[in-house]
Amino acid sequence: MKHKDLALILLVNILWSSNFLAAKVGLEEFPPLFFTATRFFIVVLVLLPFISLPHGNWRKIILVGIIMGVLHYWLMFWGLSIAPDISSVAIINQTFIPFSTILAVLFLKERIGWQRSFAILLAFAGVMVIGFDPVIFANLLSPVLVLVASFLVALNMVIVRTMQGVSAVNLTFWTSAIGVVPLFLLSLVIEEGHMTVVRTAGWEQWTAVAYSAIGATVVGHGLANYLIKRYPVSTVAPYYLLVPVLAVLIGVVFWGDVLTPELISGGLMVMAGVSIITFRSARRQEKKAAHDA
C-alpha cells in the first residue's frame, strides 16, 4: 500500500474515532433524536448535488433508511448521551463485527470455523465483563442501547450485500434523507426545548454536529470508499481496528475516561475477538479471490 493511502487510512481512523468525542460534546446540549436529525439534515444538504435515483432498489433502501437512518443512530447517540464515558461505547460498538458474522451464517449461508466461533463468544464475554464496571453497571441502559445499535449495523450490512448498483454516496444520502423526517417528527413528539437548544447551544455543540455530519460521514466514509476501490476489503479492514483504540485514547485524554480493570480486561477481550474475526475473514477473502482468479 502506498504511503499516501496509509496516511488516508490513518485520517479515516482519526475522523471516525474522534466522532465519539464530537457526538458526546454535541449531546451535552442536543437531545439524541434532535442531534441525529440535525446531523442527517447537514449530510443531505452536502451530498444533494452528487446523488441520483437508485432505480430498482427502493424497498431495500427504505429498509436501510429505517434500520440505519432512524433506529441505529438514534439508539447509538442515545446510548452515548447517557454513557458515563466514551471508551465503553467505542468498544461495545465493535460488536457489529461478530453480529455481522452470525447474521451472515444465518441468512447468507456462510460457513465459519471454530476460530471465529470462539472469537464471537470471546467478544460478547468481553461486553459482559465491561458491564460489571461499577460506573457502567450504574447505568446499564447505555451499553444495552449501544449493543442493539451495533446489531442493527450488522443487519444493515447483510441487506446492503444483497443490493446491486447503488453507490456508497447514494446509499449514504438516501439513508440520511429517509431518516431525517421521521427523526425530526419523533423528536418533536418525545423531546422538548428544541428552540431553546437552537438558541443556547454554543459553537462547540454546533461544531460537533457539523463535524459528525461532514467530518465523520461525508469525508470519513468518502475516503473509506475511495480506499476500498483501490484495495481489497481484506487489505483495508484490519487497519480500522485502530478506531476503538484511538477512541479510548481520546476519551481518556479529552473526556477524562477512567480505565478500570473491568473496562481494560473486557475491552481486550472484545478487541481480541473482533481482531480474530477480522483477520480470519480477510484471509478467507484472499483465498477466495485467489481461487476465483
Give the C-alpha Rg: 19 Å
State the oligomer.
Answer: single chain
Per DSSP E runs of 2 or more residues, the count of β-strands stands at: 0
* Structural class assignment: mainly alpha
Mean pLDDT: 90
Proportion in β-strands: under 5%
**What general outline do the C-alpha atoms trace?**
globular
What distance separates the N and C termini? 21 Å
> In DSSP terms, counting alpha (H) and pi (I) runs of 4 or more, how many helices?
14
Task: List the domain count as a whole number.
Answer: 1
Q: What pattern of helices and strands is seen along the backbone?
A: HHHHHHHHHHHHHH
Low-confidence stretches: none
What helical percentage do the residues reach? over 70%
Main β-sheet, in a few words? Answer: none
What does this structure look like?
- This protein has 293 residues and is mainly α.
- The chain has one domain.
- It has helices at 3-26, 32-47, 58-82, 87-92, 96-107, 114-131, 134-137, 141-160, 168-190, 194-200, 203-230, 233-236, 242-255, 261-292.
